[in-house]
Inverse folding.
């Protein structure tokens, strides 16, 4: 029996009906439309090719009547995760230079996802250090102090992407005086000695 697909205007009516929802997973659409996974895959591909619908990531689709932000898209790519490191420091007005790389921490394996306008970089963190973030709507973003510690720990202490000199050079471009120093020192105690040592070497004023 040949499957009957929803017409474009029916899809538009559907997305308007669920205007409050910015992102739909394929499983969401199966439940909400009653369509089979195979049928939906065909229909969604056609809508995507016709630029009627944008795919946010594999098996995730944007509502054309309420498009999600880059940060909202980031949250569905590799959960659980939170925005951290350079991106969160920029959003918290600690890092002066604008950041186009969206940096996140996750308990899952490292992952890089590229879109036309942005690159999402996920760094794996052990569960014992997966904290220090606030939830704003659907978005998880690190406190400025935790974002700084994540950055030092992941790029210098653990993965050795940056040298000690490069870390200090990066810190020179930050408004460190805006940080809560007591919170930073308290958070630092949960990290390794290399990370904690960098914190003790920082000149805040």
């Amino acid at each position: 029996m040949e499957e009957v697909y929803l017409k474009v205007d029916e899809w538009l009516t559907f997305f308007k009906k669920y205007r409050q929802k910015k992102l739909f997973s394929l499983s969401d659409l199966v439940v909400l439309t009653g369509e089979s996974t195979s049928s939906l895959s065909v229909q969604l591909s056609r809508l995507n090719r016709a630029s009627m619908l944008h795919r946010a990531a594999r098996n995730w689709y944007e509502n054309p009547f309420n498009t999600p932000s880059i940060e909202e898209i980031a949250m569905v790519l590799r959960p659980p995760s939170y925005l951290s490191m350079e991106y969160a420091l920029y959003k918290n007005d600690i890092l002066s230079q604008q950041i186009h790389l969206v940096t996140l921490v996750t308990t899952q394996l490292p992952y890089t996802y590229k879109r036309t306008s942005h690159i999402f970089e996920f760094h794996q963190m052990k569960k014992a250090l997966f904290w220090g973030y606030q939830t704003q709507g659907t978005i998880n973003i690190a406190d400025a102090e935790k974002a700084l510690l994540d950055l030092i720990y992941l790029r210098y202490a653990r993965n050795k992407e940056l040298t000690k000199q490069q870390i200090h050079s990066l810190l020179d471009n930050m408004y460190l005086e805006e940080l809560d120093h007591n919170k930073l020192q308290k958070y630092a105690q949960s990290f390794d000695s290399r990370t904690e040592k960098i914190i003790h070497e920082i000149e805040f004023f």
In short: The radius of gyration is 21 Å. The CA atoms of residues 44 and 50 lie 10 Å apart. The chain has two domains: 8-68, 78-201.
